[in-house]
Amino acid sequence: MKIERKWEMPHRYTFKLKSVKSLLTDEMEGVWADPFCGRYSPAEVRNDADENNPAEYHLDGLDFLRSLGTASIDGVLFDPPYSLSQCLRKYKPIHNGTAGRAEYQARCKDEIARVVRKGGKAICFGWNSTGIGKKRNFKLERVLLLCHGACHNDTIITVELSI
């Protein structure tokens, strides 16, 4: 397993960060989906509940994942809002802030395990390194700790392989 730590100022849009762009260039191959794309997602199949964001779909993230076929995607970028308070600010009243709740994210991870083909990848972003996990048949291959300085939480990025 590869573990890296880099320092970079935070950015509202995760995919604009130089370190993230570099990791995605290394890891992404094939057709990727992003259930919480925001802006600047490099995925080909993008979803965001906010209709102002450029995406092919504007569904709840879980509903979007459920709409994808089994083993139909080479990879998923999983970059939901990191905290319940972020979800409540961004998604309420649209989805009652459910995207930040642990049980909602667990259901999303179950769907990610279903839609990613064997040998495909999941790249997860957040404040923990849980990722998709062993119980869903994913093997942790790479971790990037992205330090943003003393006043900000690190962004923890995991890259996992579907086995």
Spell out the helices and strands N to C. EHEEHEHHEEE
Strand order of the biggest β-sheet: 1-6-7-5-4-2-3
Oligomer: single chain
Average pLDDT for all residues: 90
DSSP strand content: 25-35%
Number of strand elements: 7
- Cα Rg: 15 Å
Taking the alpha carbons of the first and last residues, their distance comes to 15 Å
Q: Which features characterize this protein?
A:
163 residues, alpha/beta, 7-stranded mixed sheet, 4 helices
Explain what this protein looks like in three dimensions.
With 163 residues, this protein is an alpha/beta fold. Helices cover 24% and strands 28% of the residues. It has helices at 18-27, 61-67, 84-91, 102-115, and strands spanning 2-7, 32-34, 45-46, 73-78, 116-126, 138-147, 155-162. It has a seven-stranded mixed β-sheet. Strand 6 and strand 7 form a beta hairpin. The radius of gyration is 15 Å and the shape is globular.
Q: What's this model, at a glance?
A:
This protein is an alpha/beta fold and 163 residues long. It has helices at residues 18-27, 61-67, 84-91, 102-115; strands spanning 2-7, 32-34, 45-46, 73-78, 116-126, 138-147, 155-162.
Secondary-structure map with pairings?
Elements: E1 2-7, H1 18-27, E2 32-34, E3 45-46, H2 61-67, E4 73-78, H3 84-91, H4 102-115, E5 116-126, E6 138-147, E7 155-162
Parallel strand pairs: 1-6, 2-3, 2-4, 4-5
Antiparallel strand pairs: 5-7, 6-7
Helix pairs in contact: 2-4
